[in-house]
Amino acid sequence: MLGELEQIVLLAVLRVGRDAYGVPVHDEIQTRAGRDLTLGTIYKTLNRLEEKGLVLSHVGEPTAERGGRRTRCYVVTAAGKRSLAASLKVLRRMAAGLDVGLEPT
Amino acid sequence: MLGELEQIVLLAVLRVGRDAYGVPVHDEIQTRAGRDLTLGTIYKTLNRLEEKGLVLSHVGEPTAERGGRRTRCYVVTAAGKRSLAASLKVLRRMAAGLDVGLEPT
DNA sequence: CCATATTCTAGACAATGTCTAACAAACATC
DNA sequence: GATGTTTGTTAGACATTGTCTAGAATATGG
Questions:
Q1: B58-73 tens-digit pLDDT
Q2: How far is the CA of B13 from the C1' of C29 (A)?
Q3: Chain A contact for B77, CB < 8 A?
Q4: What string of H, E and C letters represents the secondary structure of chain A?
Q5: Are A55 and A42 in contact (CB under 8 A)?
Q6: Which of A4, A35, A105 lies nearest to residue B3, judging by beta carbons?
Q7: Which of A46, A55, A91, B72 sits at a 20 to 30 Å CA gap from A26?
Q8: What are the pLDDT digits (tens) for B79-92?
Q9: How close B67 comes to chain A (CA, Å)?
Q10: What pTM did the predictor assign?
């Protein structure tokens, strides 16, 4: 089963799309989910997701920024999408009909 | 932050409504979420949720069944509902626009 | 080359997920 | 009214996930 953070990270990788490496994923989570995590937390989670075959990584080009090492970019695998969909489906089914978490804001 | 199972258990308690003790909660999760957990897992999670003030329990009447000890019935507190709503909102926001399965039915 | 900025890795520890085994209390019955 | 059977709960152990800090690697600019 996917943990809560794993779900969020998978979603963030999907949202970022191309060049989804640590920093953009971290920023997406910070902005969208309002969750203040360290980069280390993101990397650890991405590593674990990769071990489980739910994402795949490849080394990318260095950013054109000031400095820094090569980026490691992630893509969600088919298995990752299936796993994520399954988790979200369970929540949707469990929440269906209850007026919890369905209110906008 | 709520773990994945914690969210599911909270939702199950809400679904069951009156007399939400271990067994019905377990059954609801089994049926609705298709997840095969032991009763021990449910109880442990309920205990932890109570320690965090997200559910409240009271000892209920014994079932009129064959035998059995008194039931401990759970209710989701206001804090529990808030916490749950917050978690689900994050997921909804993260999933919004992606074709991955948390969009309203 | 050396300093510095950026990204990634590793190791530690806390919280959550999960099971098995054991304990407790009601009922039926004899 | 002792006792065994049934149903429900608790406790303890271990695996997985969540999270941080500290440090290593690799670019670029002077």
A1: 998 776 667 778 899 9
A2: 37
A3: no
A4: CCCHHHHHHHHHHHHHCCCCCHHHHHHHHHHHHCCCCCHHHHHHHHHHHHHCCCEEEEECCCCCCCCCCCCEEEEECHHHHHHHHHHHHHHHHHHCCCCCCCCCC
A5: no
A6: A4
A7: A91
A8: 999 999 999 999 99
A9: 30
A10: 0.93
Token pair 């799309």 in the structure block, residue: A17
A92/B102 CB distance under 8 A: yes
Instruction: Specify the pairing of strand B72-76 against strand A55-59.
Output: unpaired
Selecting from B4, B5, B88 the residue whose C-beta is nearest the C-beta of A100 gives B88
Q: Which amino acid is at B99?
A: D
* B window 33-62, beta carbon within 8 A of A: 33-35
Under the banding of pLDDT at 50, 70 and 90, the label for residue A104 is very low
Nucleotide lying nearest to B68, CA to C1' measure: D7
Q: pLDDT value at position A94?
A: 97
